Structures
1.
Amino acid sequence: MTPGRALHGVIYVATGADYLDLAVQSARSLRAVEPEVPIDLFTDRREDVPGGLFDQVHGISNPHRRSKLECMARTRFDRTLYLDCDTLVTAPPGDLFDLLERFEMALAHDVRRASDLIRQGHEHATPYAFPQLNSGVVLYRRSERVLAFLTEWARRFAEAGVTRDQLILKDMLWQSDMRFYVLPPEFNLRRLTVLDAWEPEDAIPTIIHSHRLMDHMRGQGERLRGLERIVEAERAALDREWERAGGRDTDLVARFIGRKANR
């Protein structure tokens, strides 16, 4: 590392065998496109971690569904990219970490932004244009201020008794004067079907974040490996979603706006 340059790296948090399996897969995809980046893992299954993949492996003594909230503040990196386990890295992140020269944190908008689920906060109502931000890809500084924010996020989540950490995050970002940046979707690509619509120079898909990678954990099919299988599964899921909604209107805008207006 160049003297005086901030140390940057990637962390994963995996509790249980299934999530560890996904974290290993994601970390290998990252290594394939960015071989030199430091990668740390936080897990309750240190004995099952394959050698040579992670730079450091940290233990989790009291695992729970949102152990990541405590672990994010334990990063050793000056600039950290946290990735959920159900991610695949398909292109080098490049100068992504340089955003932290100007901003303290960076996240992408969540999908389903017209749904009550993603518009919801815990204590605060916000405009439609301020939806939840997805907490599966988070870029952040290791500063006193940001670490305090992460610690407070974990505390509020534990006290709130909710299942989704993004409700608390939405409230806190709305209240805070934190300098955060909203990442372009290619850095947290939640809908691979958008690739069917993108033109060649629209974007470079960099971080894929698909729940289809966890379908087997929910009893919804076999373990999916490889982008081709995941894209096929997402296309099928998209068709089913529109069927449940009553089909797609031929007017590309009305199919969205009309449905919401008639709810």
2.
Amino acid sequence: MVRLIVTDIDGTLVPEGGSRVNPEYMTVIRELTDLGVRFAAASGRQASSIDVIFHELRDRIYYLGDNGACIQKNGQMVRGMYMEEADLLALLKELREMPGQRLLLSVEEGYYTDDRDEDFHRLVFEEYKGMGKVVEHVEDYADACIKLSLYCEEGARGIYDLLYDRWKDRFTIYVSGARWVDINGLGVTKGEAVRWLQERYEIKPEETVVFGDNYNDISMMRRAVRSYASELSHPDIRQAAGNVVESYEKDGVLKVLKQILKEVRNEK
């Protein structure tokens, strides 16, 4: 029987940066949790941005924010994985000399950026609806950092390629969207967060269902026997998942959740 469901958000439930889902998601997830199924939203987003979508269920579900670095339930952090301050400061120094990206630091409370571009501020604080503020120097908050994100207007892949080989031994680095590169502490992944939930509740991979669409979702797909990739995702992601779900435009995840709800009811 399915006992744990984990879904990515951007590109899976909503278009990148979106914050509105079909209200029926809330009804179906509520019914699943009433039947004892654990549910988690796993995202590169900070927890405050996840909460914009799932606020009415925040006492029922887990937020695996910042690629699993921050696990929250009902507004309380139950697990945090912080970045190594000295390594992060060294990386930030290099990034200051690298054009083509904008810095966004995640801490438990929200997002910090010292970038002065107002369009970037609108993207982060209005479209993604994340809590946080513009600060003088993000380096001042390096000791509390959970994740560093780079917004790359010309596309994420080029910046990723410049950073990966140099920093892969000190950080986990992902392309997490068309214009986003996410950087976490070494070993921090969505899959590690899913593993933590599975161990906490003694849930097996064959009792787990996962939905995703990007490279930072592959690690959690490996924690589930049954996983789904959006039909819009890269072929690598679809291969990792094994199953394909219709896009967010067609409420593909919702359709599968309804099927799982029927399965759970029948097994009860």
3.
Amino acid sequence: MLNSTFPITDVSAADSTAHSHSHSDHCGTSGCSMKYDTFKVACSSCNLRELCLPVGLSAPQLSHLDSLVATRKTVKRGDALFHTGDPFRSVYAVRTGFFKTRVSSEDGRDQVTGFQMAGELLGLDGISTDRHACDAIALEDSQVCVIPYSQLEDLSREFSDLQHQFHKIMSREIVRDHGVMLLLGSMRAEERLAAFLLNLTQRLHARGFSASALVLRMTREEIGSYLGLKLETVSRTFSKFQEDGLLEVKQRDIRITDEAGLKALVNSVRC
């Protein structure tokens, strides 16, 4: 039940120690300050390759992909990688850091639509209309690999393995969206937050981090926006989980003390 709601890839290790020389620039029409790394990015030597686009590619195919992914971009906390309406030219693989995507309603309210971490792709929303349909905001200082989409299409036609992997990633996003709809449509507040925390720890564990302890990069208000809950409900539910012995909560530091109890909450939902 949990994995069908929030699919993850069960592999290990993230490289959070990359250092680089960079210079300041601006991200076109979005107007946010960014840094561009001018050195070459090698997918073949990246510790995220088993989580990211290159998974399963042969050495010659990786070499071709290396020639495509030639730029890294650093996005400071609070800055945008892209905004709604920006021209779509590239997809972005998160190298380090954490992002949220959001859309704005007609009355000006922001709705968080997802949280993305190392090894996951951003920018797929722009494929259908050639313009981005959401904002992507860094929740901490982050770095992405820039993958020009037109060149990715050309390479995908040449290598069926790459095309297959890209389709799998797009399918995963669709399934994830369905999972969110299930959250919003059939789960109580406790079940929504339990599913969210379990998914988050599973994804982090796949990147080499603890399976039970995490630091929330997003605020409780952002969690509430994503889960369709009011801020007060999210805070109250965190407190209840702590009282019930499911979690230890110290501001943004969370430690899961009863994973089975959280799973029992989620698995009680009837699909």
